Amino acid sequence: MPPAEPGKNKMFTKKKKEEKPKKGPVKEWLDAIVFAVVAATLIRWVFMEAFTIPTPSMEKSLLVGDFLFVSKISYGPRTPKTPLQIPLTHAKIWGTDIPSYLDWIQLPQFRLPGLGEVERNDVVVFNYPPEFEHPIDLKTHYIKRCIGVPGDILEVRDTQVYINGEIGSNPEEMQFMYSLVTDQIINDRIFEKYDVWEYRKSTDGYIIHTTPAIAQSMEKLDFVLGLAKAKRPERYVEPRIFPDVRFFPWNADFYGPMEIPGEGKTIQMDEETVAMYGSTITDYENHDDAKIQDGKLLIDGQEVSEYTFKQNYYFMMGDNRHNSEDSRFWGFVPEDHVVGEAAFIWLSLDANKSLFSKLRWRRFFNIIE
């Protein structure tokens, strides 16, 4: 048998590695975009999401034009409920009224473990509860301050919040509406000097929104003849007030008392408790068949004499107390509607200014308290 020639023995011959075809520039860009979208979606879902402040309901704590990051891990991220959705969108495709999702599949929603729970005075982003056009996770985002947690007895007396009979903590930059009496036209620069951005002419002067400290300073101006908080009278009944003005003739400045319900809390269902909590149970407790009929709560067609709540609820108010659509008007925020805790401002733009003067540099990276 002749000796094998070098390099001819197949047993010892190394197979040449097959060269992978090089990616073209289009394929490389496509891979990079897919990776970026997946990474951004995961970060947005689990850790942080960017939001902007479109209305003055939280001024002066948060200003219109503030861009902020909201922490999802503070209270725990929610699992997606509506999976058939264009990535990195909310309810609609950017700049259009076209829905960005299909509601053919609705998954059970759970909250993963977080760093803590919603606490009194946290600034919270949540899905607007009474918006029933979209699934829970795609309802419009709102931002308010939590002033009441489950079990709290909440009351507003003469614009001051009371919790469990004691004066509640007031935000440092809390604003109210004031009536400024003057017989002169006030130059816009005066309002700007005193950091007053919400004002309008009235029959005897101006209506302004500002903090008590600034109001006290402006009252000393020579041309100001009087300045007083424009609060509602105690006996004034506000038609839109929550929960039911027929049983609770309250207004936004004189409100309650009311107990905020929580998971495991059992209440007896009579005419008054049905009026106070009935809509919360029918709207947010996830019953297939729950309704109020003739002042009674019916679940699956049967009258309910007592009810135990399935989840926690929170009472939210804006820091701009006389210019805020909040829990006083539309009710409690269910726990499954809570998105996250406002963490810090990363950019702030003043729409009334131009070019670089738009940037509110002093607000960059401010921690939200």
Mind telling me the CATH superfamily name of the domain at 29-151 and 328-369? Answer: Umud Fragment, subunit A
Rough outline: flat
Alpha-beta content class: alpha+beta
Strand order of the largest sheet: 1-2-20-3-4-18-19
CATH topology of the domain at 29-151 and 328-369: Umud Fragment, subunit A
Question: Mind summarizing the main beta sheet?
Answer: 7 strands, antiparallel
Give the oligomeric state. single chain
Which CATH top level class of the domain at 29-151 and 328-369 fits? Mainly Beta
The overall pLDDT average reads: 92
Output the helix-strand order: HEEEEEEEEHEEHEEEHEEEEEHEE
The percent range for helix content is 10-25%
Strand content is 25-35%
Unreliable stretches? none
Distance linking N and C termini: 90 Å
Please report the total strand number as a whole number. Answer: 20
Q: What is the radius of gyration computed over CA atoms, rounded to a whole number of angstroms?
A: 28 Å
Number of helices, where a helix is a run of at least 4 consecutive DSSP H or I residues? 5
CATH architecture of the domain at 29-151 and 328-369: Ribbon
For the structure shown, list the relevant keywords.
4-stranded antiparallel β-sheet; 26% strand; flat; 5 helices; 7-stranded antiparallel β-sheet; alpha+beta; 369 residues; Umud Fragment, subunit A
Describe this entry's structure for a reader.
The protein starts with 24 loop residues before the first helix and ends in a 21-residue tail after the last strand. It has five helices and 20 strands. 28% of the residues are buried. It has 369 residues and is an alpha+beta fold. Among the domains are: 165 residues, Umud Fragment, subunit A (Ribbon); 54 residues, no CATH class. The longest helix has 22 residues.
